[in-house]
């Protein structure tokens, strides 16, 4: 952070112990940190003490890179990308930093002195669960790629004290436990109280005339909250660039109200502190109706205002005015959660920096870009005017003015089309009035993108059609990607080694080089070793499953995996219908020859989402019955692994044979799990939805198990009046399966337990499971047959890995940089006394 008063200029000589990368230095540093930071003697140190000492040892090695990066950016006055996201699901830092620094082996040796294995210390790290799923994890992959590609960037978000809840399973039901990720401290972050900013809430506005006779507005808030930044360095892979993830914690400006204290109101004296700190207290789970949740709007405005004020402060340190703000900052809105930023930047420019409206609007529109992540109408954010106006009165005025000017322009284009005007308006006036956040984002941004080709097409045709008609040039597609550093190198060292042995290590930064593996697909020895590796990874997961949930699974069975948030559109229950179908067949014909399978599920349901929770219960109930049925003889196993998170993902993706990507066509914006599976050699069974379509294009139709209706067919069926009962009555096997579930067979005779789920499918079926059922079952039979021919299966798996180059987040980020952000890489040169990455 720039500090203009600073006159203290001298080269900082850092002891080798803090920067050296050889085993001996790391060993010394580790002992040193154990003693002087953890305050522990080696013989009394717990595993966690050792983890903390190691984390500090590695952080030391990031800091010079990080500070040099920030200094270079300031000196060169670079153009910077700011990724505004209410969620960053970064996952554990330690292993990734070791890989990116290139010191895994040295550290492994240094740690061995403690009598522990490095892997045990890595496992000790509590992951920051600051996200729900795909959206937050995408933000984290993008930070990794931005640093690796040496792009100046800051990730701005919220430092939730409690992240996504931990999940336990009691009697088959999900139970939510508070996530206390900070309880033992977070060695990766650095607090910067000196860079704190203030954010206003509530109150009213008034107009006044300034000293130059200009008419202005001023916001007299009800209360003011302080935002304190906590910075985490994000190091790129084998480069010196370490960008910042800056997360805001809310605090009271004055933590103690002496006035109230002196009046004897002891509790009231800390009231303000409690309220202020609540803002960054807890992450909201997805799929909860949010309209009434004022605190959520407070969170959004809080972090957005803090971040924009921070950018302005940095900008004014290097530039005389904010006239060039949009030339130096490109701000990406990760979904609508930060879209209030459009109005906030207007407020800061007009009220605080005294710009006129038109100039402020020009800067604002040229600063922001917006990524949409969902087609589900219920997930498009809108805030009741009553709440919005009360909490953010000045922002409300500004939004009215933006809307007024916008609609005036529209009236010229569509003079007699009132319907169009009300469809485009930022304010929804059809019933109770709402602010439509997606509309604000569209109007206030220079670019709008979807996250997969189909998704972008559907945005243009459907959800944002009216905006597309108005400004088609703003729309583009940016298919998601994931970072191979975390999702292959860190989570699958065996596969990494096998690949690198054949094609060198360039693929880690240039994933398209994986194509080189195609040369080995006919090499029998290579396929043998491929299978051995997969088996070993599956055996590891089998051990873990046994330890975690006490179920024994056989690594030679087909591992059929579905891990993701539990949601009806993702159709975990379609997967269950397949399992029950197989079970039912085996019961009728115990000698039936089927490919033995282990079905593995993981995922959290929103605490208030009844149907999602019932699906978890159903999976566990089916698992229990099958497990206790001796006639099945281990041919089917069902496992629900609790508490799906990044760490668990890293364990399960490498072990999968089959990846379930079975959402209703047109519902899953992209998916990113689909990419992680396929990169690790799983084959996909999937619908033509989201990025599945592009994965299939890349790997080849013959290497992908496709089933189900297309989006057009889904739309057409809906339009024609979809009736799931037709399927129920005409498909005997389907009926038997649904009846078995409805009968209480899996619920100890309680026929009411799963009734809501079964009835929902028979009478409503909004996600069209019954329409896709037969096609899914047939396709699964093909999977079973294919798996029996292990040679053939290995070929398909190798080809999947070889052709996944497109889905590196490096490719996505390059496209954002070239087509939306227009930013260039900036090389970071370390001072001579710092040892370069190994
Ligand atoms: C959401 C979308 C998903 C997309 C992801 C990142 O993830 O639903 O399709 O891949 O954003 O763009 P979710 O939060 O559902 O996991």
Automatic annotation (TrEMBL):
Pfam family, one: Phosphorylase
Keyword tags: Carbohydrate metabolism, Glycogen metabolism, Glycosyltransferase, Pyridoxal phosphate, Transferase
Modification type N6-(pyridoxal phosphate)lysine: residues: 676
GO molecular function: glycogen phosphorylase activity; pyridoxal phosphate binding
GO cellular component: cytoplasm
UniProt record, GO biological process: glycogen catabolic process
Family: Belongs to the glycogen phosphorylase family.
Function: Phosphorylase is an important allosteric enzyme in carbohydrate metabolism. Enzymes from different sources differ in their regulatory mechanisms and in their natural substrates. However, all known phosphorylases share catalytic and structural properties.
Protein name: Alpha-1,4 glucan phosphorylase
Species this protein is from: Microcystis aeruginosa PCC 7806SL
């Amino acid at each position: 952070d720039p500090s203009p008063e600073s006159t203290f200029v001298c080269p900082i000589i850092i002891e080798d112990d803090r920067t050296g990368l050889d085993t001996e230095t790391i060993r010394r540093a580790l002992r040193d940190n154990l003693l002087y930071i953890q305050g522990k003697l080696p013989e009394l140190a717990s595993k966690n003490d050792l983890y903390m000492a190691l984390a500090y040892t590695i952080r030391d090695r990031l800091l010079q890179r990080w500070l040099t990066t920030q200094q270079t950016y300031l000196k060169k006055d670079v153009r910077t990308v700011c990724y505004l996201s209410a969620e960053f699901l970064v996952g554990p830092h330690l292993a990734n930093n070791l890989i990116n620094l290139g010191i895994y082996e040295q550290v492994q040796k240094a740690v061995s002195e403690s009598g522990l294995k490095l892997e045990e210390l890595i496992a000790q790290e509590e992951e920051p669960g600051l996200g729900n799923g795909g959206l937050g994890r995408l933000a984290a992959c993008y930070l990794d790629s931005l640093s690796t590609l040496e792009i100046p960037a800051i990730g701005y978000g919220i430092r939730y004290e409690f992240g996504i809840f931990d999940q336990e399973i009691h009697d088959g039901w999900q139970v939510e436990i508070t996530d206390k990720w900070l309880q033992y401290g977070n060695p990766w972050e650095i607090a910067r109280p000196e860079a704190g900013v203030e954010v206003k809430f509530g109150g009213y506005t008034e107009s006044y005339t300034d000293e130059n006779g200009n008419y202005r507005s001023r916001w007299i808030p009800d209360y003011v909250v302080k935002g304190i930044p906590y910075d985490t360095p994000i190091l790129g892979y084998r480069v010196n660039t370490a960008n910042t993830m800056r997360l805001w914690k809310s605090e009271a400006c004055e933590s103690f109200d002496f006035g109230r204290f002196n009046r004897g109101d002891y509790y009231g004296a800390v009231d303000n502190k409690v309220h202020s700190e609540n803002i960054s207290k807890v992450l909201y789970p997805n799929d909860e109706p949010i309209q009434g949740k004022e605190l959520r709007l407070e969170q959004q405005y809080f972090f957005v205002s803090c971040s924009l004020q921070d950018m302005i402060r940095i900008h004014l340190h290097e530039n005389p005015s904010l006239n060039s703000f949009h030339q130096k900052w490109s701000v990406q809105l990760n979904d609508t959660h930060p879209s209030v930023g459009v109005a906030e930047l207007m407020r800061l420019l007009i009220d605080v920096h005294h710009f006129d409206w038109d100039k402020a609007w020009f800067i604002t529109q040229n600063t922001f870009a917006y990524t949409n992540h969902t087609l589900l109408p219920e997930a498009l954010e809108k805030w009741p005017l009553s709440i919005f106006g009360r909490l953010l009165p000045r922002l409300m005025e500004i939004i009215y003015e933006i809307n007024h000017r916008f609609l005036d322009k529209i009236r010229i284009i569509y003079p007699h089309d009132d319907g169009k005007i009300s469809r485009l308006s930022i304010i929804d006036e059809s019933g109770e009035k709402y602010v439509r956040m997606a509309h604000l984002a569209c109007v206030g941004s220079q670019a709008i993108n979807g996250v997969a080709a189909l998704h972008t097409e559907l945005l243009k045709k459907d959800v944002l059609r009216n905006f597309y008609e108005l400004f088609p040039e703003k729309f583009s597609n940016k298919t998601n990607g994931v970072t191979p550093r975390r999702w292959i190198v860190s989570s699958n060292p065996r596969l990494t080694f096998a690949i690198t042995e054949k094609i060198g290590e360039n693929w880690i930064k240039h994933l398209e080089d994986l194509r080189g593996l195609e040369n080995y697909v006919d090499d029998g020895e290579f396929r043998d070793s491929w299978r051995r590796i997969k088996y070993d990874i599956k055996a590891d997961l089998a051990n873990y499953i046994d330890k975690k949930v006490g179920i024994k699974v056989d690594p030679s069975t087909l591992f059929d995996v579905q891990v993701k948030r539990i949601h009806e559109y993702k159709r975990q229950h379609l997967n269950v219908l397949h399992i029950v179908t197989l079970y039912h067949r085996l019961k009728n014909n115990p000698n039936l020859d089927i490919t033995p399978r282990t079905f593995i599920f993981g995922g959290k349901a929103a605490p208030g989402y009844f149907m999602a929770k019932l699906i978890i219960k159903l999976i566990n109930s089916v698992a229990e019955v099958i497990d206790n049925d001796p006639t099945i003889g281990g041919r089917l196993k069902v496992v629900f692994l609790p508490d799906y998170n990044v760490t668990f993902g890293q364990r399960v993706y490498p072990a999968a044979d089959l990846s379930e990507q079975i959402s209703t066509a047109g519902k899953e914006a992209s998916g990113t799990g689909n990419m992680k599976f396929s990169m690790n050699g799983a084959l996909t069974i999937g619908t033509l939805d989201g990025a599945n379509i592009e994965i299939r294009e890349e790997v080849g139709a013959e290497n992908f198990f496709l089933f189900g209706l297309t989006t057009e067919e889904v739309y057409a069926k809906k339009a024609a009046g979809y009736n799931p009962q037709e399927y129920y009555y005409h498909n005997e096997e389907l009926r038997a399966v649904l009846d078995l579930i409805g009968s209480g067979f899996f619920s100890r005779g309680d026929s009411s337990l799963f009734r809501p789920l079964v009835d929902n499918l028979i009478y409503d079926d909004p996600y069209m499971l019954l329409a896709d059922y037969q096609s899914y079952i047939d396709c699964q039979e093909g999977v079973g047959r294919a798996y029996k021919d292990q040679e053939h299966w290995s070929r398909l798996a190798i080809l999947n890995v070889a052709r996944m180059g497109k889905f590196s987040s490096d490719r996505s980020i390059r496209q954002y940089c070239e087509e939306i952000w227009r930013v260039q890489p900036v090389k970071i040169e370390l001072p001579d006394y710092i040892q370069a990455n190994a």
